[in-house]
Automatic annotation (TrEMBL):
SUPFAM superfamilies: 4Fe-4S ferredoxins. This is Fe-S oxidoreductase. PANTHER family: ANAEROBIC GLYCEROL-3-PHOSPHATE DEHYDROGENASE SUBUNIT C, GLYCOLATE OXIDASE IRON-SULFUR SUBUNIT. Keywords: 4Fe-4S, Iron, Iron-sulfur, Metal-binding, Repeat. It comes from Aromatoleum diolicum. Residues 204-289, 336-412 form the Cysteine-rich domain. The keyword 4Fe-4S applies. Pfam families: CCG. It comes from the Bacteria.
Length: 446
C-alpha cells in the first residue's frame, strides 16, 4: 500500500474550510454528499451505529436505480437530520477516513450540510432556542424561576403545551435547573504548592460548562472536592460561555466563532500560566480539543487551549501514573454499570474513567461502549424521541442486567437518559444514578 493511500495509518482529520465560499455552494455540497454516500452504500459497515446510515441505505434501496444516483438530492437532508455528530463512524468503523485517498469524513460532511441549511435559514426557532444554553440557563436558574421551571417540567399539562409549542417531546425527562449555580458557590482552593508531573501540570483551572453551572452544580463541587483532597491548586476560569458544541450541531458556525471569541482569550491566558484546564462534560472537552482547532487551525491561542485541555479522569489517571494521585479510598462502591459517552470515546484517551474507578477496592466496573442515543438536544425533540430510545435500548439492557448499585456516565445527560430508559422499559432497578466524579468523591469519603 502506498503512503498516499495510507489506510493503515492512524485516522487524521483535516481543517474545516467553513470560511470558504465553496463550503456553502449547494451544487458542490451535493456532489460531495453523492460521492461519500456512494462509498458508504458500497461498504455499509456503519449500518448499526445510528439512524443516519439505515436512512441512507433505505433511500438507495427504494430508489429508481438501487444506487445513490437514483436518490432525489432533496432527500439527502433526511440523512443529515439523523446525524448528531457523535463521530463514532469516523473513529471506530470507517476504513476510508483520512489519510486514505478517498478522504471520507462523514460527520464533518454532515456538519457542512447542516451549516448550509442554517445559512439558508432552514432551522426551527425551537432549535435556535435549545442551543442557546447560556441564555436558557441565565433565565431558568434564577431561584424562583428555577423552581417554577422544574415544577412545569414535571407537569403533564405544561409538558403537553411545551411539546405543542416547541416540539420538545413530553415524555423526555429534562434536567433540573439549580437555583444556585456552580460559579459563585464553588469553593476552589489554590493554597498548595504546585507539583508538576511528567504528564500533567500541577495546577488546574475548571471550565464550568453550561450544564454544570446551571443544571447539576453538584458535579462541579464533586470535582472541586476531589482536587482539594489531592491538594491540587485549583481556580475557576475567569469567565466562560457555552463551549459551542450545541451551535456546532445546529450548523451555526458563526455562533461557534462568537463563543470561541468569548472563551479562548481567558483560557489561553490560563494555559500560558501553566494551568491544565478541566471540563467535566465530555462534549465541552472535545469541542476545545478537536473541533475548535479544526475550525480555526491558524489560531495559536486555540491550539494552546487544546493542548492544555483535559477530561478530569484523563488528568487523574495521568497523575496516578506519575505517583501523584491519592488512593486512600475509604468506601467501596460495589457494582458500577459505567457508560462511556461517544464524545468521551472520540477524545482518543482510552477508558480513563474506568481505570480510575477500578483503583477503588471493593468496586466492580461493568463498562458499556455504545451510543446511548440522547446526543445533546437531538433526543429531546419530538420527531427523534422514539429513535433516541431505540438506539439506547441495548445500553439500557446491558446496564441493567448486572444489577448494579450505581449506573454512571461521564455525560450527565446520557446518565439521565439511561435511567429513564431502564425504568420505562419496565426494569425495577434499585441502582442510584451518579456521575463518576460523584462516585470518586464518595469513595474518598469526602
Amino acid at each position: 500500500m502506498s503512503k498516499r493511500e495510507g489506510s493503515l495509518d492512524a485516522p487524521s482529520r483535516r481543517p474545516i474550510a467553513w470560511q470558504d465560499a465553496d463550503y456553502y455552494d449547494e451544487a458542490s455540497l451535493h456532489g460531495e454528499l453523492e460521492r461519500v454516500f456512494d462509498i458508504c452504500h458500497g461498504c455499509r459497515r456503519c449500518v448499526n451505529l445510528c439512524n443516519a446510515f439505515p436512512t441512507l441505505f433505505d433511500l438507495v434501496d427504494d430508489g429508481k436505480t438501487g444506487e445513490v444516483d437514483g436518490v432525489d438530492k432533496h432527500d439527502f437532508g433526511k440523512v443529515v437530520d439523523q446525524c448528531y455528530l457523535c463521530d463514532l463512524c469516523f473513529m471506530t468503523k470507517c476504513p476510508y477516513v483520512p489519510p486514505h485517498v478517498w478522504n471520507v469524513d462523514f460527520p464533518h460532511l454532515m456538519l457542512r450540510a447542516k451549516a448550509v441549511k442554517f445559512r439558508k435559514g432552514e432551522v426551527r426557532m425551537r432549535d435556535r432556542i435549545l442551543t442557546s444554553t447560556d441564555a436558557l440557563g441565565k433565565l431558568a436558574a434564577i431561584p424562583v424561576v428555577a423552581q417554577t421551571v422544574n415544577a412545569a417540567n414535571h407537569n403533564g399539562v405544561a409538558r403537553a403545551a411545551l411539546q405543542s409549542l416547541l416540539g420538545v417531546d413530553k415524555r423526555r425527562e429534562l434536567p433540573p435547573y439549580a437555583p444556585v449555580k456552580f460559579r459563585g458557590a464553588a469553593d476552589v482552593q489554590d493554597r498548595w504548592p504546585v507539583r508538576d508531573g511528567e504528564r500533567t501540570p500541577g495546577k488546574v483551572a475548571i471550565f464550568a460548562t453550561c450544564y454544570i453551572n446551571y443544571n447539576e452544580p453538584g458535579i462541579g463541587h464533586d470535582l472541586v472536592a476531589v482536587l482539594a483532597h489531592n491538594q491540587i491548586p485549583t481556580v475557576l476560569a475567569q469567565q466562560e460561555a457555552c463551549c459551542g458544541m450545541p451551535k456546532l450541531e445546529l450548523g451555526d458556525l458563526d455562533g461557534v466563532r462568537r463563543l470561541k471569541e468569548l472563551n479562548i482569550p481567558a483560557l489561553a491566558e490560563l494555559a500560558r500560566e501553566g494551568y491544565g484546564i478541566l471540563a467535566a462534560v465530555p462534549s465541552c472537552a472535545l469541542m476545545f480539543k478537536q473541533e475548535l482547532p479544526l475550525l480555526f487551525p491558524d489560531d495559536a491561542d486555540v491550539k494552546m487551549v487544546a493542548d492544555a485541555m483535559f477530561d478530569p479522569f484523563e488528568y487523574f489517571m495521568l497523575r496516578h501514573r506519575d505517583g501523584l494521585l491519592k488512593t486512600d479510598f475509604t468506601q467501596a462502591l460495589g457494582k458500577v454499570a459505567y457508560h462511556i459517552p461517544c464524545h468521551g470515546r472520540v477524545q482518543n484517551v482510552g477508558q480513563k474513567t474506568r481505570e480510575t474507578l477500578q483503583l477503588i477496592p471493593g468496586t466492580e466496573i461493568t463498562t458499556v461502549e455504545r451510543c446511548a442515543g440522547h446526543d445533546g438536544t437531538w433526543g429531546v425533540k419530538k420527531e427523534f424521541y422514539e429513535q433516541s430510545m431505540k438506539i439506547g435500548r441495548p445500553v439500557f439492557r446491558l446496564m441493567a442486567q448486572v444489577q448494579p448499585d450505581f449506573i454512571s456516565s461521564d455525560c450527565p445527560i446520557a446518565g439521565r437518559h439511561i435511567q429513564q430508559g431502564i425504568r420505562d422499559g419496565g426494569t425495577d432497578l434499585k441502582a442510584e444514578k451518579a456521575h463518576p466524579l460523584t462516585l470518586l468523591r464518595k469513595a474518598y469519603g469526602l
